[in-house]
Predict the structure of DEAD/DEAH box helicase.
Amino acid sequence: MTEGDVAAFTHLGPTVRDALSERGFSTPTGPQRLAIPPLSAGENTLVIAPTGSGKTETAMLPVFDHLVSDGPPEGFGALYVTPLRALNRDMRERLEWWGNHLDLEVAVRHGDTTRYQRSKQAEDPPDVLITTPETLQAMLTGERLREALADVSHVVIDEVHELAASKRGAQLSVGLERLRELSGGFQRIGLSATVGEPAEVGRFLTGGRPCEIRQIDVGSNVDVAVREPEVTDEDETLAGRLLTEPETASHVRLIRDLVDAHESTLIFVNTRQTAEALGSRFTELELPIGVHHGSLSKEARIDVENRFKSGELDGLLCTSSMELGIDVGRVDHVIQYKSPRQVTRLLQRIGRAGHRRDEVSSGTIVTTRPDDTFEALAIARRARAGEVEPAAIHEGSLDVVANQIPGIVHSRGSTRVNEAYEAVTGAYPFRDLAEETFREVLSELHRNRIVWFDENEDRIETSGGTWQYVYANLSMIPDEETYEVHDIASSTRIGTLDERFVVNFARPGEVFVQRGEMWRIAEIDDDEAVVKVSPIEDPAGEVPSWIGQEIPVPYEVAGEVGEIRAVAQPQLETGAGARAVGRELANRYPADEQTLTGACEQLERQIDAGAPMPTANRLVLERQGKSVVLNACFGHATNETLGRVLSALLGQRAGSSVGLETDPYRIELEVPNSIGTSDVVGVLRETDPDHVETIVELGLKRSDALAFRLSQVSASFGALKRWQGSGRLSNERLLAALEGTPMYEEAIREVFHEDLAVERASAVLERIQSGDLEMVTHRGRTPIGRDGRSSGTELLAPENADASVIKTVRERIRNDRVILLCTHCTEWKVKTKVKRVRERPECPECGSTRIAALNPWADEVVQAVRAAEKDDDQERMTERAFRSASLVQSHGKQAVIAMAARGVGPHNAARIINKLREDEDEFYRDILSKEREYARTQSFWD
């Protein structure tokens, strides 16, 4: 044991050191060596280290030591606050051992704690209480619990980086100031994954008071490789077995091989859709890989966690649900499927591997396309260098202020305004809150009868609605209307969906996950708040349509992708091939030659096409027909802000709406013919950068997105009754009624904070107008510009097409005719247009759903199905009809559309339907690709 090791544990008393020996802690971990000395000295401390590196014991050993040395208090001695109930479960299992050996009581309290247990805790408080931010809010209002909280000497906030960037954290920061009023001060300990600007998170933790920062250098302990698989002969065979494309098969095969090469592997994906899609492929291959995400039931999640921990599962497919410290045993490798989008995400995820013995964390990023690969390379390099994004703290959330004022007056009774104001502004996120703004919030609460504001006495009193408000608003997680989900066949209730899901996603025909099963939406009844669904009988052949909110790529990461392009451009222009450029990039980035070569081929195609290269310092504006693409390496938020400015101002010029799609590297516009390329250039060169915020806000005033947020914010102010929901008041009326209020101001602030980057966008316009940022135009689409069309999908589209072509294909197929034939009774046959086909075709004669969709000239197939003869031709036609009917039965109208295309039979239709995608346009683009393939090879078939 080194001198440093000895120094760490010698700060602890003999009772705790004896327990350490019994527990087998002979050598401190890195965080323990760094943080136990200041923690033992009672300093406020932020401990930054990867999951699984002993952070919990780092924080709690000095806390236990103080409680043992000073003697257990009458009330609570320490609070351990975690953001997830699942972490409560893990923490209790880990901390109870120490409590038993140190004669200290450890207990858990959250929303599911029984009334008996709560009463017992109030009468005889445990020495250490594990709880959630929301339960702490409730505890601050109970008279006996407040007495017990007065003895708190230590508060540990787990996963503080998660809370710092959320309204839950803003609420907790005020709660800690209210706790401080009761206890007279306490030691604050924060446990965090790697985060940028640690001092800012420290100030969030302490309310701006002094804070020691103890940080493990994670980047130097991370070994990450970026790999994009090359399609092999095995993948061609595997694709047939999985009914998917060879590219997807190559992803499945590489992940399978990586899992086989390690003992226990976490496979992180960015969306629940991808988790289910890959999970269905692994199920088809009978591989021991489980799925873990938020749509699964608690029981299902615990089951796969235990099976992985026991070794029954070799791999676990998971989303951000597994980023936090849920204990799943030892992990020796982490796979990230597609770019993790952010450095913090990569470090949190890769950091789950190998840290139980201070080992290097090893991981592989499996990428799928050039943008994805370059982005992953930039993130991997930045992770090694410790260039991490800061936590985006919510500054001055007015709905949190509205939430806390009733809690303060309910717990304290009659309160002077300045005292309540000081309690709120003592929290770091509210340090700059103006008293005038605070009083505006207070006046709104008074109007809504949540509290009584006596302006003459300058005091706040409780009202008839205070008690009900406080206990109905313990959480800052939006309380959305709940839609019941009913099986349309049996009318049984199978679960619920939240309002955001229904408003932003749900429509007939879409597929989603609930309780680990997949369902197709048949009907939505907004009045009754019911979604009627039918089960997907063959989940291996389906993927959910809903992907949730996309993880935004930061400005800095997108900029580095632009820098990589800038480095490659002169080499490619002087004749160096993609392979040579890839070899040079290998000196800086962690990827094999094949992966780098494959990504650089995109840049080589750009040069070969004679198109300018978009870089961090060059914008490329390209146009074809109505489609305009501004190639801009500025990340999601900046591009979204610039896109809204362009869309709004060009729409004003044209007198009609302008379509907008953005990704981290492109702003794609669908403009009327009256808008010229010079108009787009003019907006960028002439718009005052100082007007960006105003322009965007004016555009937001008519948006459903703002209305939805406004309905949630106004509920926090008591302005809308919870049971009304935003659906009872039109968006236009809601926006008009609340404009100019604190609720409106907060809804706008939230949109700008979470989705936009006004300062960055303004700076881009300044650089364009000063000549510091080059802007060039190009007639026609470029290889890089076109690749944005598949940015949301798992695969490159085989042959890209612009929006006008896709619209033409969609309309043509909708107006094509098909024959529908019931293969069960064979009596019902009808010729109709595709657009008139029901979502779930059904025979009116016998009720069967086995309906074949045939070409309008396929009467001979109908006769073959109806005939008893079994010659070879009739057998082939009959088999084709039955395969068509099986596809329609499983996929409904989507299958009819696919088989109505030129030269697309049941086999190709199945491939199109089962392909991973997140966009309806991609569905029609794949149909178009198959039609073109048929046109090229038609002479071989005719």
In short: Residues 920-941 form the longest helix (22 residues). The longest strand covers residues 517-525. The radius of gyration is 30 Å. Residues 539-548, 722-728, 789-802, 938-942 have pLDDT under 50 and may be disordered.
